[in-house]
Amino acid sequence: MKIMTIVGARPEFIQTAPVTKAIRRRHTEILVHTGQHYDDNMSSVFFADLGIPEPEYNLGVGGGSHAEQTGQMLIRLEQVMQREQPDGVLVFGDTNSTVAGALAAAKIHIPVAHVEAGLRSYDRRMPEEINRVMTDHLSDVLFPPTRVAVENLKKEGITKGVRLVGDVRVDVLLGMVDRARTRRAALLQQTGLADGQPFALATIHRPANTDDRARLCAIVEAFNALDLPVVLPVHPRLRKMLGEFGFAFSGNVRAIEPVGFLDMVALLDTCQIVITDSGGLQKEAYMLRRPCVTVRDTTEWVETVESGWNRLTEPDDFAAAAVQALQPPPAEHPDYYGTFGVSDRIVDALEELLPHNGTM
């Protein structure tokens, strides 16, 4: 069987790492990088940290509006798919690369499999929500990570080809914590923090937060005023908008360059709380039992909020949310995301559900 795997952004690099290994043990894989995240700190370092092989194709589609980016991806992905004629196309998550891969494949009648299907924030202002919904309705095989996601698909009439296999980040995260801990000392030295000193790990990158002047101002002021240091790997979009608006962090914020996955896991494993607008980091925080404050109105990971380990907040409410997050966490920590071996269960399902010509 020949599978074409499409990636383009940080969340997809993380998720594809164990799945690519599982596919290549048993079948042929064509790995395609759209180029959506092209900066070395947002792309190459993840391939190195996670042991992902070099892509067979790098399409080089980087900047531009959502329409420009998605349109260029569609054109180039279709050309690659027609050349390679895979038995199926595998996409991850909710980025422009995800929906472009699904749409290009569906239009030329190549089956689509979607890892991380069924997530819903029910906030159509988020481009990611549009991408999720479209991709799920284009897909032939769907891998929801949780029972909540299965139910979301049922509400939309999607029941065929759905397999609850767990969340692939379980395979990634639990397999890398020990390696990541060897990086802790160097990271603490880089941030100027003493070993054992409490800090908040923060990431901010969504346009709703970075591109709104008043909202970004409130976020900067909140970080500057927190009662504990903030370690902030600065996303390129955040850096750009800080410069355009003329905002600056105080010494309380240890702003560093974007970090690879191993370093992020090391910081996550060491911090006291997480403050983020990232979907993936909310879930990674939950898996490593770190209380999270999410700077959004909604989240696709509703179970983390319902469990009490995650809090949705506006920038003006940071202080109160951070104080709450620093209290002893809930005694219960439900196992929402399944057990190790998700990647092999995905390949098992692909073998069963995708028509193929026996190519190995």
Structure description:
By secondary structure, this protein is of the alpha/beta class. The chain folds into 2 domains: 2-167 and 339-353, Glycogen Phosphorylase B (Rossmann fold, 3-Layer(aba) Sandwich); 178-325, 3-Layer(aba) Sandwich (Rossmann fold). 46% of the residues lie in helices and 13% in strands. The protein has helices at residues 10-26, 44-50, 66-84, 96-107, 127-138, 147-155, 169-174, 177-181, 184-191, 207-210, 213-225, 236-245, 261-270, 279-287, 302-306, 318-325, 342-353, and strands at residues 2-7, 28-33, 57-58, 88-92, 112-115, 141-143, 200-203, 230-233, 253-256, 273-276, 292-294, 310-312. The strands form 2 sheets. Strands 3-2-1-4-5-6 form a 6-stranded parallel β-sheet, with helices on both faces. The chain has a 6-stranded parallel β-sheet with strand order 9-8-7-10-11-12, sandwiched between helices. Helix 1 (10-26) crosses helix 17, helix 3 crosses helix 4 (96-107) and helix 4 (96-107) packs parallel to helix 5. It is globular and about 55 Å long. The mean pLDDT is 92.
